[in-house]
Write a structure and sequence with these properties.
The complex is a heterodimer of chains A (325) and B (378).
Chain A lengths: L9 E4 L1 H15 L5 E9 L3 E3 L6 E3 L3 E4 L14 E11 L2 H6 L2 H19 L8 E8 L4 E11 L6 E2 L5 E2 H5 L1 H13 L4 E7 L2 E5 L4 H4 L9 E5 L11 H12 L5 E7 L14 E6 L13 E4 L10 E4 L1 H4 L1 H8 L1
Parallel strand pairs in A: 1-5, 6-7, 13-14
Antiparallel strand pairs in A: 2-6, 3-4, 7-8, 8-16, 8-17, 9-15, 10-15, 11-12, 11-13, 14-15
Chain B lengths: L1 H14 L8 H4 L4 H14 L4 E3 L16 E9 L17 E4 L12 E4 L27 H16 L3 H5 L34 E3 L14 E10 L4 E9 L8 H5 L11 E5 L7 E5 L4 H26 L16 H13 L15 H12 L12
Helix pairs in contact in B: 7-9
Classes of the chains: A alpha+beta (325), B alpha+beta (378).
Organism (chain B): Piloderma croceum (strain F 1598)
Family (chain B): Belongs to the ATG3 family.
Protein name (chain B): Autophagy-related protein 3
């Protein structure tokens, strides 16, 4: 059976974030380089129809940070869910280059694992880590995201038919009901159980209670899927699966719903959510030992390396003046 | 100079009175209240649009504090407008062709003008990307760096678009760490998964007619209310396919040639303390909107008269691209009209709620490849 491959998160940093970071650096942080909390957000994967060729084109599996990411209580964009993170701003490019990235990464991944094992909590499953260096004179910002995700051994595999359209598997009424539920209560991960003709959703933490009288063939795990690729669920599913392997190691077969419908499809459109049944062999080791983790974002060249945002064309007063003539 | 100009605009904006009286059909301008009503309608009907507060110090008192401007994020832009249309630069590329080849008559009758001679497809493609120089180590001499960046500035000033397009790769720190993640992770989707199904495909693999890879840019689009011109005003912040912010020169590639560098400029975004964004200058918005509204209004009035006669036909969605499946839309539009408490006694024509919907259609003609006009997607 084919191994499930996940679409990694891609970071999208709005220029407004760099403006905020500049202000923060000058007014508050100054020379401090302590680790600070930050929030990001993602929404369901979107695709767009190319008018010339009629093909559906998947847009990126984005995690966005913006001007509100540094505020304590940030307002979420519509149809989005929150991902908490931490960031560390270095004072010099040398520090940035010399940073012990393995240690920082391990620290972040341990925090996630800890929240799974001790708190049995899903709120940190999407935790990300960001290192930055801001060259304020040249309006250049170096940054490197990591989205720690646990590697599962043996890997999760998907049944012979692969990922299928969710409306075909679960029925349109079920999807409509989920959509209604999410309108009032949007969350990154949730459980779905049938209730009469419709369905109910519950939080992952209440798993045992929620699925107490539900046969395994009606238990569905669902998550807000930032990927729009038909055969690749988004990155958040990886840690959700790790969560289940650690805490519910008895369930070796999971019914997964990749929720991708922020809005009800138009009368001519189709549902975009995907559905698949995943299975994995029993782990040889104790399920509560921390597996290895991956997740540094690749740069523009596709290598593991930092990215740079050059905002001089949009921030440097001299260059803006030239533009205006 | 630009700074002074911006100061002048700020003062002029401050001094100009708030438009009180609704005259949107007479001259295409709207009041702040109408802007809010039209914005509410847009946000209600098209969920991608939402109201934003903006920076607290920049709040305009004639608008509700939580409805300062409209925002939609991640608007896709599949192709460059420059690849759709010929640009001004091509006017200089005319070449006289003489098929007679110094024929016997010798007059000009045999000469042809070939326009757009030597026109290349835009360099902004994955296959034909700008030349990227070797990435030097950061430890390189500091002095020359200043000079090169100064030269870069010079190039930019003379609007040498080609030079400005090439991303400035000078200073990416040389720190690839492929050993950071020891093993190849088999469960990570490769960036380019071969498309097996004809359904959804990864953006990176689409081939356009000329064999070039399609580059999907995304835009954050904002609509503010311009108090001086009494019209909405549109602002754009763009990202390339690697989510790197676009430079002004790159943004101009997505603006139709009639408007790039003329009516579209980079200016300070009014609801932020420091953000700069590309904006379509609103000086002609009112007159264009007036024309568009007049034309549409005639159609809508006719529609409403016919409707009153038949008394049974549902109110029609007054905008084009009607498909058989638009029935739900119609109901919504009718519901919105009914909710506003409008009697059926009088033929009112196009309602001001629709203003921003119409406005987006007009903006779509300026930025043809940016799909701002989500209203046709239904």
């Amino acid at each position: 059976m084919p191994i499930v491959q996940f679409a990694p998160f891609s970071s999208l940093v709005q220029p407004a974030f760099w403006h905020e970071l500049t202000n923060l650096k000058i007014d508050v942080l100054r020379l401090s380089d302590e680790i600070l909390p930050i929030t990001g957000s993602y929404s369901v994967g979107r695709s767009v129809k190319d008018r010339e060729t009629g093909q559906e084109i998947a847009l990126g599996c984005n995690l966005t940070i913006g001007s509100e990411s540094l505020e304590k209580r940030s307002q979420l964009p519509p149809h989005s869910v929150i991902a908490s993170g931490a960031f560390k701003n270095f004072n010099t490019i040398e520090d940035f280059k010399a940073a012990d990235k393995t240690a920082l990464f391990n620290q972040a991944s341990e925090e996630i694992w800890d929240s799974i094992i001790t708190k049995k909590d899903t709120s940190l499953l999407n935790k990300f880590f960001l290192i930055t260096y801001a060259d304020l004179k040249k309006y250049k910002y170096y940054y490197w995201f990591s989205f720690p995700a646990f590697v599962s051994k043996p890997a999760w595999e998907i049944g012979g038919e692969g990922w299928k359209d969710a409306d075909g598997e679960l029925g349109v009424e079920v999807l409509q009901s989920i959509h209604r539920n999410l309108q009032s209560d949007s969350r990154p991960f949730f459980l779905v159980r049938p209730a009469g003709n419709s369905v109910e959703i519950g939080s992952i933490e209440d798993h045992d209670q929620f699925f107490a009288n539900v046969p395994p063939t009606s238990q569905t795990l669902a998550f807000i899927d930032p990927s729009a690729l038909p055969d690749n669920p988004g990155w958040p599913l990886r840690n959700l699966l790790a969560y289940f392997r650690a805490l519910h190691s008895s369930s070796t077969q999971l019914r997964i719903l990749c929720w991708r419908d922020a809005e009800l499809p138009s009368s001519t459109g189709t549902w975009k959510s995907r559905f698949g049944v995943l299975s994995a062999g029993a782990a040889g080791v104790d399920p509560t030992t921390k597996p290895s983790a991956v997740g540094w974002e690749k740069n523009v060249q596709g290598k593991l390396g930092p990215r740079v945002a050059d905002l001089a064309p949009m921030m440097d007063p001299a260059r803006l003046a030239n533009q205006a003539v | 100079m630009h700074a002074i100009q911006q100061q002048y605009w700020a003062v002029r904006d401050y001094l100009s009175p708030v438009l009180k009286e609704s005259k949107f059909k007479e001259h295409g301008r709207i009041t702040p209240e109408e802007f809010v009503a039209a914005g509410d309608f847009l946000a209600y009907k098209f969920g991608v649009w939402s109201w934003e507060k903006g920076d607290a110090s920049k709040t305009r008192e004639y608008l509700p504090p939580d409805k300062q401007y409209l925002l939609t994020r991640g608007v896709p832009c599949l192709r460059r407008a420059t690849s759709l249309a010929y640009t001004d630069a091509d006017e200089d590329a005319e070449r006289l062709l003489n098929f007679g080849d110094s024929s016997a008559t010798g007059d000009e009758g045999d000469e042809w003008v070939e326009t757009h001679a030597g026109r290349n497809h835009t360099t902004d493609t994955a296959v034909n990307a700008g030349v990227i120089e070797d990435i030097p180590d950061l430890d390189g001499p500091g002095e020359t760096e200043g000079v090169t960046s100064a030269m870069g500035g010079l190039n930019f000033g003379t609007t040498s678009a080609a030079a400005a397009e090439i991303p400035d790769m000078d200073e990416i720190p040389d720190m690839e760490e492929d050993d950071l993640e020891a093993e190849d992770d088999e469960a990570t989707a490769a960036p380019k998964v071969p498309a097996k199904t004809p359904g959804v495909i990864d953006a990176a693999e689409i081939e356009v007619a000329k064999g070039n890879l399609l580059q999907v840019r995304t835009y954050d689009v904002m609509i503010t209310y311009d108090k001086y011109y009494q019209t909405p005003r549109i602002w754009l912040i763009g990202y390339d396919e690697n989510r790197t912010p676009l430079t002004p020169a790159q943004i101009f590639q997505d603006i139709s040639a009639d408007h790039a560098l003329k009516t579209v400029t980079i200016e300070a975004f009014p609801h932020s303390t420091s953000l700069q964004a590309a904006s379509v200058h609103p000086c002609k918005h009112a007159s264009v909107m007036k024309k568009v509204i007049e034309r549409m209004n005639a159609g809508v009035v006719e529609e409403q008269l016919a409707q009153r006669k038949s008394k049974e036909g549902k109110k029609k969605w007054p905008f084009g691209r009607k498909t058989s499946g638009a029935g739900k839309e119609d109901k919504n539009a009718a519901a919105a009209a009914a909710a506003a408490g409008q009697g059926e006694d009088e033929v009112e024509g196009l309602r001001v709620d629709m203003y921003l919907v119409v406005f987006l259609k007009f903006i779509a003609s300026i930025v043809p490849t940016i799909e701002v006009d989500s209203t046709t997607a239904f």
